[in-house]
Each structure stands twice: as C-alpha cells, then as structure tokens.
Design a protein that fits this description.
heterodimer, A: 323 residues, alpha+beta, 2 domains, 4-stranded antiparallel beta sheet, 9 helices, 65% helix, elongated, B: 219 residues, alpha/beta, Rossmann fold, 6-stranded mixed beta sheet, globular
Chain lengths: 323, 219
Amino acid sequence: MSRTGDEHGPLVDLGTERPQVPAQARNMSPIVPRASISGRALVAVVAIMTFLASITTGTVLLVSASAAEWQSEVASEITMQVRPQAGRDLERDVTAAAEAMRTQPGIVQVKPFTKDESARLLEPWLGSGLSIEQLPVPRVIVARVQPGTTLDLAALRSRVTQVAPSASVDDHRAWIERMRSMTGATVFAGIGILVLVIAATIISVSFATRGAMAANRPIVEVLHFVGAGDRYIANHFLRHFLRLGLEGGVIGGGAAMLGFGFSESIAAWFSGTPVGDQFAALLGTFSLSPSGYLALAVQAVAIAAITAWASRRTLFATLDDID
Amino acid sequence: MVRFENVGLRYGLGPEILRDLSFMIPAHSFQFLTGPSGAGKTSLLRLLFLSLRPTRGLVNLFGQDVSLLGKDQVANLRQRIGIVLQDFRLLDHMTTYENVALPFRVMGREESSYRREVIDLLRWVGLGERMDALPPILSGGEKQRAAIARAVISRPQLLLADEPTGSVDPTLGRRLLRLFIELNRLGTAVIIATHDITLMDQYEARRMVLHQGRLHIYE
C-alpha cells in the first residue's frame, strides 16, 4: 500500500461537510519545546568557561609576544665588559676592544659607554656625584648584531682578549634560555588550564543533556512510537544545545575580548605605579594583536562546538537507554 | 505480514507470561485480540510494535527477522505500523493538529502536502473544533480520538490499537470502528485489543483470545 497521500483518495469522506482548508502554512511548534531545557544555567556555565579559556589564551599570547620581543632585542645585542687591570690603561683597552669588535663580520654598530654614561648606569645603586675614577668599575661596550647573521663568538672573544686581556664577551645566552623556559612554562600552564576548562565544560554539558533528556523522556518515547530514528531525535535536541553553546561562547568570548580591548587603557592608568610597571615589563603594552582576537573568536566557536559534541554523545547514549 | 513461531516472553526472572505463541497476521486482515485482564494483550502488542523483544522464538515482521534488526531498521519498520496506546501518549506542548500530523513530520513531509488530510481526519473523528487545543485541556475521549487519528493518518500497513474505544460513548465507538474498517478496506491489517464484547459483535472478524499466556484463534 502506498504511503503518500497524493496517490490515493482521502481516508475519510466528509461529503458536504468538507471544510475550507486554510491555504497558509500553520506555525508548527518545535518538536522539543525550548522551555523544557534548562538553558540559562548551561549558558552561564559555557559563558564562564569560555571567559576563563579566553583570558588564559589571551594572557599566554601576550606573554609569548612580549617574550619574543625581549628575546629578539636581547639576541640582537652583545655586551662586552672591560675590567680595570693593574698595569694597563683602561681607556686604551676599551678603544682597542671596540675597534676589534667593529672589524668583526656581523657587527653593525658598536657603542662604548663613556665614564659619565657608566656613572649614570650605577646611579640607582651608588647615588649621584660619583667619581668613577676612585672605583674599579668595568666599562661596558654594547654592539648590535646584523639580524639573521650567526656571529662567530669564539673568534670575537679571541680577537678581543688579544688586545684587551681583561675583556669578557656576553651574548646573553643564559638570559635568553631562562626567558625561553619561562615562556614555555607559561604556555604549558595555559594549555593545562585550557584542558581543565574544556573538561569541566564537557562534564557540565553532559549533565545538562542528561537532565534535559530525562525531562523530555515522554517526548522521546512518542517520537520512537511514530517511527523517528535516533538521529532525527538527537538532531532536534542538538539544535538547542548548539544554540545554548553559541550563546555562552559569544557572551564569555565577547566579555574577554572587551576586557583585552580595555586593558590597554587600564594599563595606561596604572603606568608609573610599581604594579603597573611590573605588569608592563611582563606583558608589554597589554594590546592583543588582531590575530589574537581571531584566536579568541575561534576558541569561542570551538567551545560551542565542544558543547554540541558532548551533548550529541550523551544524547545517543541516553537514547540507547530509553529505547 | 507478521509471523510468530513458538514465541515466549518473560519479564526479568519472572514467570513466562506469553507461551508458545505461533500465529500469522495476513496483510489486509482484521482481528480482535481479547482475553481477561493481565492475560498479556498489551505485551503482545508491544512485541508486535518492536518495543519488546521475545525471550524465545521467532518474530518475523514484514518479511524480516526482528532479532537481526538494528535501531535504524526498527525505526523504519515502525513507520509502517500505527499504534494506539491506552494512555494515548500525546505531546502536551503540541496542538491536536500537530500531534496528529507528527508521523508526517517525522517522515520529513512538507506541511502543505498533508494539511487537508489531517484536517479531514480530525473533522471525521469529531475534533474539527479542537484542532488548536492542547492535550491537557482535551477530555479523555478527545485524547483517545486524537491518538487514534495520529495512528491512522499515515495509513500504516499494520494498525495496533489497545482498547481504542475505552473512553468514548457507544455512538462514537461505532464511528471509530468504522474508521478502522475503512482503513482495513484500504489495505491496512488491523489488530484491536479490547474487552468490549459489544464492539466485537459489531463486526465479523477473526478473534485471537489470550488465556493464561496461550493464544487461541477463532476464525
């Protein structure tokens, strides 16, 4: 027997009673009533999780960007110290060492610090009005390295010590290594927090889905009676959860983006204070790059997708139990 | 269309409530299923609707061994079966019209393609004025008629009805019986589980009598 209404006559014959059938489509109620899913709590959970995840990611991005900036600045510089030595003329040693550095391939700029400049460097510790001649203060020479070149540090050291035996060359390698490990630790901690946030989101969403399915069990049973498959039923629930996930993602991600948007102004208010200066030293200008904002937006969508995925997984498991 | 061979059913570790059922339901046939309360009529209907699996024996539905069916295949088979349950199982957030149209909606049909059919059937069962009412404000009889309309609207190949006239007056009961007979005339195999002797006396049909878990058929 055919199942489509167009291929056979009406099931019932109303004769002259046949009513006028309205031409316009009726507004059909959703299969799963929106109010039956306690959405507000879930939106709040997803929003908070997305906010925390965004703050974590944003901070990691800021620290990484600042660290990369410091590293490139520090790596493009080498410093030489020429210590005073009995029987040797410090000024002559400084000039000779600076000259030796200038002739080294890869060095683009050499700046020996004068006596006055060295005194100014020591001012924060030793106070002003210092007579540097009375102290055995080493002299500093700073050189800028051509970006992209690998400096032959051993050759430079050997040439410099030939002309100034008390000179030592520092390429800040130890400092850069420490910076690298600090950045790595920050990124690692950030990833750890993200994993925890995502795990908490999945657990919350699974509980919410299970609760919604329990509340809507009679609907699921009727849908089974009229021949609906699990995929059909799951898709109707999934729409609600995807929408709730997106709402939470937009609220949490949006709040975090606004926070980063305003953080530059807030940092400006605190500049000059000890706290403000510490944060500025650690996180730079607090301004997230456009790609950073894009990463936060992608992350918010990913959390909404994770919400939908966790919900779908729980839906199918629960549908198996109900049938 | 339906074939049972030595089918038995028990719930958990309890006694076997259906024993050695062997029968066939031919296409286009009409039968009453009767027996005392607790004889297992509803359980037999649930076996036929695939919401229970037998503890032993073979159930073959539309040419398929049901023990080999996956969930999607069960859903597809259920679209060929209409069922009216004693507790109606209407969705409270949907209007009477939407409840009756639900099988078409699940099949993915456009609303415009079935609107006339649904409205005609609702008028036939006396719910023309209650199309936009929600089930919580319908009377027991109205709910029963809505449940019957939902079961028959897609003209299933097999209709299972559990006490379908239990909540309506005799006149309406006769009208509903005419609907089942009409559906049968159009090709649906009908099984009506009932205690109502008056209803069974109104139409000459095969009687399947369940007694102490065993089935006796009177052609």
